[in-house]
Amino acid sequence: DGTLHISQTWSGDIGTYTCRVTSVGGNDSRSAHLRVRQLPHAPENPTAVLSKSEKRAIDLAWAKPFDGNSPLIRYILEVSENNAPWAILLANIEPELSAVTVNGLIPARSYQFRLCAVNDVGKGQFSKETERVSLPEEPPSAPPQNIIASGRTNQSIMIQWQPPQESHQNGILRGYIIRYRLTGLPVDYQIKNISSPDVTTLLLEDLIIWTNYEIEVAAYNGAGLGAFSHKVTEWTLQGVPTIAPSNVQTEAVNSTALRFTWTAPNPQFINGINQGYKLLAWEPGKRNEDVAMVTIRPNFQDSVHVGYVTGLKKFTEYYTSVLCFTTPGDGPRSPPRAVRTHEDTPGAVGHLSFTEILDTSLKVSWSEPSEKNGVLTGYRISWEEFNRTNTRVTHYLPNVTLEYRVTGLTALTTYTIEVAGMTSKGQGQLSSSTISSGVPPELPGPPTNLAITNIGPRSVNLQFKPGYDGKTSISRWLVEAQVGVVGDNEDWVMVHQVSNEPEARSLEVPGLNPYTSYRFRMRQVNIVGTSPPSQPSRKIQTLPAPPDMAPANITLRTASETSLWLRWVPLPEWEYNGNAEQVGYRIQYYRAGSQGRGLTHVITDRLEREFTIEDLEEWMEYEVRLQAVNGIGIGPWSQPVRGRTRESIPSSGPTNVSAFATTSSS
């Protein structure tokens, strides 16, 4: 029929086709050339080499392939980074090009390339892969991340960090350099080298107590050191002062008070926040618990500080010292200085007695005052007829005289006789008694009719009727008591005495224990001696009061990452000051340095001696204090104790993690 149909053409059909006609009339032929449009062939001889003109770049070249009888539209370039799956890198390379530079690559990574041609039929096959080309390492281009520094002790700081992002490591990390120095000072850095990339913590030790440091971290690889991180600053923890206050001066201002002046220690040796000063005064040879101490708040305005210790013994030598303290504890004391309180008038003479009592004379004897309060210069003795001051006779005696015969008395007359010691400050407390001439005094009788009123937590009022005075005046009243357990066979102890009030008919008895059973009795004393005891009073119980003391021997130990174990010695029963069933403990705990703001827990068992504080933060220092409570109120806080929870695993993993194959097996 004069036609040729070729179906499913392929490249083998390409060629010249000739049609010949043979006939009687003659022969003829015609030819036609067939071209088949197809996918382009793969580019040939692709090569990849490091660029000599650009950093982090690779030069690619290839031979132009057969275009499949249709003009090429573009090339597609794919890349495999560190043996990762192929990915399109450039999708529109101009068809006229046979070379291209690939830049923006990452150091220390290997790259392999392949490309294919595209015409209007479609995308041809990919070329062979180029040889794998590795970029050289470069120093890390970013610092380590998430730098955290925290004071571990007063001479150490813990540093933690994470590696730089993987895309900025620019090679295999070999380790880290940590540099640190005092904040704000033009001093050289100190350097620490961590030679393992897996170590991301470092404890900086041998630092200065309570000092601010600035710290930076950089990573390094085989090509060198990368960028340092931003500075983080952290303080070492507080310590105790290492030097004492200077220029300490002490002087007596009166018979019971000393005045201290001093200069604050150099701040760099305080090793923390100055919490104040302790002024100390103690008698030579006395135990540490007998030291008088006054705490003074710091004064940051004045260069010279002033403080006073009062309530000291009169005319007594003391050693004195001053120390500075911080929250962790006391610093050293300044060198002791000896000082003596001023003289004062003496106390009463002791053992005033009368002997050899005749109608017109008697002998008076006494002993030196127990509280001389100075250098005794002598004694003053005076006597007068009872309630007739115009008959007074006074004599001054040397300090060695301890007896004196009074003469010129009127027979059978009552006299008041007084004796007092003397110092340069004047006459001391009088000791007096009455005596009738020619009538020897006798032992007094016991008081009677004891009645108890005004019962409080710590005192009661005793009303009584004086007993027989023994023909002389009563010089002292003695109060004895059975405490706690009351009965006929229980011991009696002295709880109070009053001197030189012969006309007394009632006494306040202070210093009693709250919520305690008592039974009282009295004696009266004259110049001869002490009377027998009175009949016991009725049994009473003082009123309750809040506890006076905190639990003792408080210790705090680490229990776990989130808990601390607290132990204490419970209050002794005699310190309950109230109903035992209502006694318990109140625990307060808070992060160290938070000024007492925290959580509380109440324990209702008075015999409990331990408690586990839970739900705390990991690796955190806490302060804990304890107080006793009863039905009336709360007692004083104990001194705070400190403890730290244990370290724990990090609460979250590293961020921005990526991984790349570097070889066929790693």
What's the layout of helices and strands?
Blueprint: E1 15-23, E2 26-34, E3 44-50, E4 58-63, E5 72-81, E6 87-93, E7 99-102, E8 110-119, E9 133-134, E10 145-153, E11 156-162, E12 173-182, E13 190-194, E14 201-204, E15 212-221, E16 224-228, E17 232-235, E18 246-252, E19 258-263, E20 276-282, E21 292-296, E22 304-309, E23 317-326, E24 329-330, E25 337-340, E26 350-355, E27 362-367, E28 378-385, E29 393-397, E30 403-406, E31 414-423, E32 426-427, E33 431-436, E34 448-453, E35 460-465, E36 476-483, E37 493-499, E38 506-509, E39 517-525, E40 540-541, E41 552-560, E42 563-569, E43 584-591, E44 599-603, E45 610-613, E46 621-629, E47 641-644
Antiparallel strand pairs: 1-2, 3-4, 4-7, 5-6, 5-8, 8-9, 10-11, 11-14, 12-13, 12-15, 15-16, 15-17, 18-19, 19-22, 20-21, 20-23, 23-24, 23-25, 26-27, 27-30, 28-29, 28-31, 31-32, 31-33, 34-35, 35-38, 36-37, 36-39, 39-40, 41-42, 42-45, 43-44, 43-46, 46-47
